[in-house]
Amino acid sequence: MLQACLNGARVPDSHPALPVTPQQLAADAAALVALGVTHFHLHPRDVVGLEVLAGPEVATAVSVVRALVPRAELGVTTAAWIQPDPVRRAELVEGWAGLSAGRPDVASVNVHEDGWLDTVAALQAANIGIELGVFHEEAARTLVRAGLPDGTRRILAEVQPGETTTEADALLRLLEPLGAPILLHGEDDSAWPVLDHAARLELDTRIGLEDTLLNPDGTRTRDNAELVAYAQRAIRANAVR
Q1: Three-state DSSP class for 22?
Q2: CA-wise closest residue to 80 among 41, 25, 118, 136
Q3: For residue 162, what are the domain limits?
Q4: Domain of 214: which CATH number?
C-alpha cells in the first residue's frame, strides 16, 4: 500500500503546490486516486492555514475530500504540537465521534508524545482507526511495553531526517513481534532511501509533500502527483528485482 501524505506540518509558503484548504486537499486526492492511490493522510487547517484538531475544521476537510474520493481511506493527525495539552487534545479527538461524514477513518498518534494513550482511548471511543507513529527506538520499546491497542490499523515506522536504513531496520526489529501491519517511511533526506527500502521489504510506505519537497534526483518536485508517480515507479522496480 502506498499512502499519500498531502501536506503535513509544512507552512503554506514552503511549496507552491502545498494543499492547505479543503478544496486543495480534495483536488490533490482526486488526482492521486486517478493514479491508483486509495489511502490519504491529511493535516486539516484553519482559515489562516494553521493546523487544528477542532471538530469543525477536521469535519470540513474530511467531508470535502470524501466527496471527491468516497472510496478512499482518509486519515488525519493528532500531533501534540497542534494542541500541547494532552487532556484538551484527547477531548478534541473524542469530539470527532459526532462528525458524521466529516469523521476521519483513521488518525495517527505519536507514541513518544505525552498523553498518547489518552488520545488512543479517545479515538477508540469515537470509533476511529488508529495509526501509531513510532519515531525512534525508545518509542518502539514504549509501544511494546504497552501492547498493541485495540483498533490499530497499522504502525507508522518513521525514520527521521539524517537517519538511514540502519535506523529503519532497528525499528523494524523491535516492532515486528507486535504483529501489526507496518508502514515504513522517511522524511526529507531519508524519504526516498527509506521508501526504496520499504519496497524491497514489501512493506507499506508513503510519500507526499509532508515527507519531501524533492524528487529522487534532488530536483524540486512539481506536486504530490509527481512524487506519487516517482514512488510508484520505485515500488514497481523493486518488485521485479
Answers
A1: helix
A2: 118
A3: 2-239
A4: 3.20.20.70
Q: In whole angstroms, give the CA distance from residue 75 to residue 84.
A: 20
> Cell 510508484, residue?
232
Separation between Cα atoms, residue 171 and residue 194, nearest integer Å:
12
| Number of domains the chain contains | 1
Confidence of residue 78 (pLDDT cuts 50, 70, 90): very high
How many CA atoms lie less than 13 Å away from 51 in the CB half-sphere? 18
Under the banding of pLDDT at 50, 70 and 90, the label for residue 172 is very high
* pTM confidence score: 0.94
When pLDDT is cut at 50, 70 and 90, the band that residue 213 belongs to is: very high
More confident residue, 44 or 101: 44
Instruction: Give, in order, the Cα–Cα distances in Å from 206 to each of 5, 91, 141.
Output: 7, 29, 23
- Name 34's Cβ contacts closer than 8 Å, sequence gap at least 6: none
> Which parts of 82-140 are beta strand (E)?
106-110, 129-134
Q: Which cell numbers hold the place of 212?
A: 519531501
Residue 91 CA to chain centroid, in angstroms?
Answer: 21
Bridge partners of residue 125, in order along the sequence: none
Q: Which residues contact 155 (CB under 8 A, 6 or more apart)?
A: 131, 132, 134, 143, 175, 178, 180, 181, 182, 183
Predicted local distance difference test score (pLDDT) of residue 58: 96
> Tens digit of pLDDT for each residue in 25-56?
999 999 999 999 999 999 999 999 999 999 99
